[in-house]
Give the backbone structure.
Amino acid sequence: MKIDPDNKADLSAQIAEAIRDAIVSGQLIVDERLPSEAELADHFAVSRPTVREALKRLAAQSLIRTQRGAFGGAFVNRLSYPEAYGQQITTATLLLSMNAISFDVACEARYALERACTPLATLRRTPDTLATMRAEIHRQGHPGLTDESFCASDVAFHRALVDSAGNPVLSYQLAGAVEAMQPLMNMITFTARSREAIVGFHTRIADALSSSDAEAAQTALTELEAYTLTLGRDVMAARAPK
């Protein structure tokens, strides 16, 4: 593990990257204890506070965990899918909140990824995932449902669609798209959209999965994307200064 002392980048960031690369490459394996702070400080020729900051960066990414006691120290973490989901959602949310991703780009990415799930979803959907989708459709039709609850139900419906594919890697990749991008779209479009139209699209998608018709599900998602894009553009045009 090496860093470039002449590099102007933050030394703690360089150290964190060097250790992360060692973990990714397999030089450091799951549950392996990292060298002590003093040993790492000697290895990288930096101060212990610099090493400590690098370890904090790695812990924040769930790449390492720390334990106290005689047999304590920093250890390579065994990352779980739920932890990975959270990181994906956080990263996507930050990108969106900082306007690093436009509404159109987020919408295009989200629906392209969801459509990629539908062939698997039509083959692997379970009674539970279908029941979740039907329950959310029923909930969305309730006239007393608040805008906030409708948006949450919208996210839950699409989460069930993605999970119907039965592929944890796809679910991980789509965590940011569904649980970060979709709330942004809802926040922009909820005042203009028709709940009845959304329920109609969702019903078509659930029916298509139920009858194992991937093409029909993809068509409904494509039309929902076009509807969402139109709403988003109209809302933002209305907000633009005259």
User: Anything to note?
Assistant: DSSP finds ten helices and two strands in the chain. The two ends are 56 Å apart (CA to CA). Residues 214-239 form the longest helix (26 residues). The mean pLDDT is 86.
